[in-house]
Amino acid sequence: MNKNTINEVETFDINRDFDARLWRFGQHKVPVLVVDNFYKNPDMVRQLALDIPASTNKRIRGGNPAERVNAFYELSGMAWAFDQLSRTYFPEIMEHKPQEYMQNSFMNATFMVNVMQSDKLPHLCRIKIILQEQILLVQFT
Question: pTM higher than 0.70 for the full model?
């Protein structure tokens, strides 16, 4: 029996020419950072997300009505990009964080994908917008 293995460095390699744009929404001008062309190998990331079975376990899903993939991989190679983006677009938050903050955060980061298939979602799903540390989070209730 052959077991599939992953090369995390190659799979999660960041495209150094990604395109980042900050959008502001609503009367409170809530900032939302959109990053296009983030991964160097997006097809590998997509395939990984498709290959791992999604769970309906509430402990894994949290408050999300969808299914969720949550797996531990070596993601610390991505920390530099998140640090750069955070310090560029959210300096008022990052100025209070130590230089190694993002690298330390990625030591416990997981590869997480929310799988939302319309035929499995509740008919009515309210969206609650939460502003936490000036970063937009969307929670389904």
Answer: yes
For the chain, which residues make up each domain, given as ranges?
8-140
Angle at 85 (CA atoms; ends 83, 96), nearest 5 degrees: 55
List the end-to-end C-alpha distance of the chain, in Å, as a whole number: 43
Q: What pLDDT, in 10s, does the model give residues 19-71?
A: 999 999 888 899 999 999 999 999 999 999 889 988 888 887 777 777 888 89
Query: DSSP per residue over the chain, as a string?
Result: -PPP---HHHHT-B-TT-EEEEEEETTTTEEEEEEES-BSSHHHHHHHHHHSPPB--HHHHTT-SSEEEEE----GGGHHHHHHHHHHH-HHHHTTS-TTHHHHHHTS--EEEEE--GGGS-S---EEEEEETTEEEEEE-
Residue type, 59: R
Distance CA 89, CA 25 (A): 15
Q: What is the pLDDT of residue 95?
A: 93
Judge contact between 67 and 61, C-beta under 8 A: yes
